[in-house]
Each structure stands twice: as C-alpha cells, then as structure tokens.
Amino acid sequence: MTVVLGFEGSANKIGVGIIRDGEVLSNPRRTYITPPGQGFLPSDTARHHRAVILTVLKEALEQAGLKPADIDCVAYTKGPGMGAPLVTVALVARTVAQLWGKPLLGVNHCIGHIEMGRLITNANNPTVLYVSGGNTQVIAYSERRYRIFGETIDIAVGNCLDRFARVIKISNDPSPGYNIEQMAKKGSQYVELPYTVKGMDVSFSGILSYIEEAAHKMLSSGQCTAEDLCFSLQETLFSMLVEITERAMAHCGSQEVLIVGGVGCNLRLQEMMGVMCKERGAKLFATDERFCIDNGAMIAQAGWEMFRSGQVTELEDSWITQRYRTDEVEVTWRD
Asked: Entry's PANTHER family (predicted)?
C-alpha cells in the first residue's frame, strides 16, 4: 500500500491530507479570513500559514492514526498560486521529507483538483470545468496531457465574485463566494450585465467593472437590491461557463462533465450545468466543499498517482512557481 502526505497552501487555505490507495485518511485545513471589504495579501497569508501549518500536520497524522514512518512520499503544491504562501508550504514539505527520509513530489495545483475530482466521483474521462479564485479553465485529457480548451483571458471567475463581494461589503466568512450564493437565492430581479464569450475563452473583468460602477448607483436609487445584483452576476457568469463547457464537450464527443475548484461547490452552477448535461444525455459529476475547496488530500492524491508512475522531485528541483500551466505537466499515470 502506498501512503502519500500532501501539503496545500497556494492561496488562503492551508491543508494537509493523507491518502492511502484512493482512501482519504485525513484532510484537516485552516482558512485565512480577512475583514469585509478586504482581500488577502500574500505576506499576511504566508504569516497565517506559518503559524498553523505544523498544528495541521500533527492533526493530519493523528486523524489518520499514522506515524512519520508510515508515510511513503511527501507531496506539496509547486504552483500555480501566490508566491509567499507557496514558499512557506514548500519549505515545510522539504524539511519534513528530509527529516523523515522520504521522497518529495512537486504537484501542479490544477491537476490536484482534477485527480481528486476523478477519485471522489469515479468519473472516467470527463470534460473538466476548473473554476476557482485564481483559475478558470475548460480542460480535457488527450495524449498524456490535460489540454486547455478554453480559459479566462483576464481574471478568474472566483476573483470576479470575491471582488464584487468587497464592493458591497459582504463577509469573507466562510468565503465571499458562499455568501454571494446565499444572497442570490433571495434575488428576484435580473439586471442585465455584459456577457463576454470569445470563441472558447471568457472575460470577466468587464462585467466586474460594469457592476462595480452600477452597484452604488442602483442600490442608492432603489432600482434593485444587493440580492438582485448577486443573483444577476451569478446567472451571467455561470451561463458563460456552461456555454464554453458544452462547446468543449461537443468537440471531444464527451458524455461527462466534472466541475472542480472552489467555485465548483456552488449549487446554482451545478444546477445550470446539470440542465445542459441532461439536454445532451450526459452525466454531471461534482464534489462538495470538503474536496472542491483547496485541500491537502487533493495534492496527496495527485502525488500518489505521480509517485506510483515513478516520478519524484529532486531536492534541487523542489522550487515553486506562481505560473504553472495545467498542460505543462506530462500525465504519466493515464493511458
């Protein structure tokens, strides 16, 4: 049996997970939460991670009932992500691997999400919609790579939602996206917003600029409520994502969709994607917040796949990178 320990800390979540042959043994995490109206800065986020990472590691081992000797490999997020938090986590992973005498593995964050989604849902060969605070991509596997069929050309969908939450001073606890989702359920009036799909790609910065400017005017004049704006923003953004996902499915002849990443927990996005899948006779796969949101187990799972196919990262190659494309990784563990 192969047991892999995974460290994740590319953004405001710090997680340590342990996987043994497809079984999640433990997956504790902590979130750095800032006051309403504020985002999280790399240096502050790294400070938060430094303060709690060893506690989370201890929790992961205790929950799994394992000792360092039982671990076969230590995996960590190599990128993409925020520089300072990534460095913090890589440093701990490197140190732990050397202290325990274990091989090290640098994992692509996006591939961690995909492999975790495949494990939990048992999706065979899905078209993947990866949506989070830092990434928005439509991906499909072909010839030992996860190929990007479409993506955002500016900001990620989660970043668009988070920044709108700041404009109307929504709480960041547990996350701005979750709070927008709850407010949107109470919205009834649809406010028309720019809809920007360019071929297979999407653009969210124009919608954000438009709604940022319009929000204060419309709210102060009583034209609509904050709930109406949350509802309208979600409907517009998610329609764009469903459109490009359907186009990728048609191109690949795919009958499966897998939604991964933090925004993938959104039940309205899952509902809209489900309608499209039903019309095409396709199946939708999604996970809940335990595995959608950044976590250590997803890095452990991707690390498990990589380690079993013979990959390891030498110490001198164990750096991090803020830019690390999904299609840069050779997928040696799939046919």
From this structure: TRNA N6-ADENOSINE THREONYLCARBAMOYLTRANSFERASE (PTHR11735:SF14)
